[in-house]
Write a sequence for this structure.
């Protein structure tokens, strides 16, 4: 079976700064894969490079066995969609939800837009009452649902999630995480999810990669983390940090 | 335990086009020389509570209270001049993001010296020495270099340490920290909290720690106040958080994913209108 997504020795260079130093990874179809690390570790850059938003200096990226060129074609974006971190910044402030959702449909020439928009809104639990609102009339959680609806409307098979809940309250975060899990189960999607929160990644993903300074530090399964089977100090530090503050006497 | 701050029935009201919005609706608590956490979601009024105590509420808003007293001084009756003397000198505040709350066109050292010289008559040379000592106290490795840097030249963790140094240099008795680590990486978060914890306990300060992160607050503070829709729904010892009574507190604790807890789907908050009543 070919992997849904395979990245081989990918390098990304900004000016002379090497943001990614030869990172490789394989995500099976239907799998949920997590990327963890501090800011500057290159986890978001990796996601952006896959989406074609950051230039790859060398290395290859393949989706469903098909190698990608420097420019992504339309077919790529039907397969791969991205949800960004900041729901306040990723929705057009002067477009209604309806207009926002029509954009990808128009680009890809879908005729049954009406039906798709209704279905996408239902699927993310918003209902058609939100269809003609502007993003500033929505809460953070509702905006992120719109962003997810926009990603789903083309029925992609792979979803790239860049810290999809870090701008949200804990209670809203739970709702959005549940929504993402349910959609993945129902549509058999492949997830590649970035987060700095190990607890979220172990909750959402079966396998994960820990990154530091543009390099892969460690490949783990969620089970390894639960049982603390980590070999690198860096990962151990992240684990300790996720448990909250411990007062040293 | 001596009481440092006494808050009784604090209300903050904002006039809007559609009528009055009560952001804080009757909050009461008292603070000694301890670490008190205020937790709540966005819009719960936790930050506005901190701002009202500090006296930096926007001018169009109205602040009322039966009592709002710091060390016996009635804060609502105090003149702007008296409050200015308190701010920075005896009450200090740390804000969320050093990127926005430090002056971008002033070197870090000058900002710290400015705070000190506003409140104390010290020579320039002595102010510089004390600023350098303070930068060292917040575990900045090369204080002399950082002193001359501008905020955009340092990392988030370093900026936040500089802000702590700036706030502590005048030796305040009470500190309000409004989401001091939310903009930082998890690992840096713990370093900054460790520094804050050590300095607060060494100096015997009272600390109000405002955060949305219930788990972090409960591991850091002695006592926790949980706010919902402008009101205090529960007040309890941090060590007894596991025995919280209010469904909102329990919901907040429950909805976080935990490593090792296999819960699919995550429990979500079922908000009841009577919580806000």
């Amino acid at each position: 079976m070919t992997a849904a997504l395979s990245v081989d020795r990918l390098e990304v260079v900004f000016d002379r700064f090497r943001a990614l130093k030869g990172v490789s990874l394989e995500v099976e179809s239907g799998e949920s894969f997590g990327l963890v690390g501090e800011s500057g570790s290159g986890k978001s850059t990796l996601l952006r490079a896959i989406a074609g938003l950051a230039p790859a200096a060398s290395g290859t990226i393949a989706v469903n066995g098909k190698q990608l060129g420097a420019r992504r074609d339309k077919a790529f974006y039907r397969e791969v969609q991205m949800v960004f971190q900041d729901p306040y910044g990723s929705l057009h402030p002067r477009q209604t939800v309806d207009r926002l959702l029509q954009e990808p449909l128009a680009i890809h020439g879908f005729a049954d837009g009406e039906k798709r928009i209704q279905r996408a809104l239902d699927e993310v639990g918003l209902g058609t009452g939100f269809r003609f609102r502007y993003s500033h009339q929505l809460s953070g959680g509702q905006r992120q649902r719109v962003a997810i609806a926009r990603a789903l409307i083309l029925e992609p098979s792979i979803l790239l999630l860049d810290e999809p809940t870090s701008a949200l309250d804990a209670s809203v975060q739970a709702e959005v995480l549940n929504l993402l899990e349910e959609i993945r189960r129902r549509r058999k999607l492949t997830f590649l999810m970035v987060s700095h929160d190990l607890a979220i990644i172990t909750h959402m993903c079966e396998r994960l990669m820990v990154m530091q300074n543009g390099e892969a530090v460690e490949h783990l399964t969620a089970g390894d983390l639960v049982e603390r089977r980590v070999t690198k100090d860096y990962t151990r530090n992240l684990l300790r940090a996720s448990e909250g503050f411990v007062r040293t006497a | 335990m001596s009481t440092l701050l006494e808050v009784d029935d604090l209300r903050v009201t904002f006039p809007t086009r559609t009528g009055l919005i009560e952001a804080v609706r009757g909050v009461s608590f008292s603070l000694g020389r301890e670490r008190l956490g205020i937790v709540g979601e966005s819009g719960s009024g936790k930050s506005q509570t901190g701002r009202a105590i500090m006296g930096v509420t926007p001018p169009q808003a109205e602040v009322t209270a039966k009592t709002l007293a710091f060390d016996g001084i009635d804060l609502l009756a105090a003149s702007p001049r008296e409050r200015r003397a308190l701010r920075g000198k005896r009450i200090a505040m740390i804000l969320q993001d050093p990127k926005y709350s430090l002056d971008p066109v002033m070197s870090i050292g000058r900002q710290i010296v400015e705070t000190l010289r506003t409140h104390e008559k010290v020579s320039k040379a002595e102010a510089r020495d004390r600023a350098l000592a303070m930068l060292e106290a917040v575990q900045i490795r090369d204080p002399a270099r950082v002193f001359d840097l501008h905020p955009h030249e340092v990392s988030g963790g370093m900026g936040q340490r500089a802000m702590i140094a700036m706030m502590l240099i005048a030796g305040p008795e009470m500190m309000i920290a409004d989401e001091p680590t939310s903009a930082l990486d998890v690992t840096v978060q713990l370093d900054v909290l460790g520094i804050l914890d050590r300095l607060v306990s060494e100096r015997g300060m009272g600390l109000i720690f405002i955060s949305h992160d219930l788990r972090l607050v409960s591991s850091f503070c002695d006592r926790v106040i949980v706010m919902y829709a402008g009101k205090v729904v529960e007040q309890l010892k941090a060590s007894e958080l596991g025995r919280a009574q209010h469904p909102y507190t329990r919901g907040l604790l429950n909805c976080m994913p935990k490593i090792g807890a296999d819960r699919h789907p995550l429990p979500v908050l079922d908000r009841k209108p009577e919580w806000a009543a």
Remarks:
- The CA atoms of residues 94 and 206 of chain A lie 39 Å apart.
- The mean pLDDT of chain A is 90.
- The beta strands of chain A are 5-14, 17-27, 32-37, 58-63, 66-67, 80-83, 158-162, 190-195, 207-212, 215-221.
- Residues 5-241 of chain A form a domain with the Rossmann fold fold (CATH 3.40.50.300).
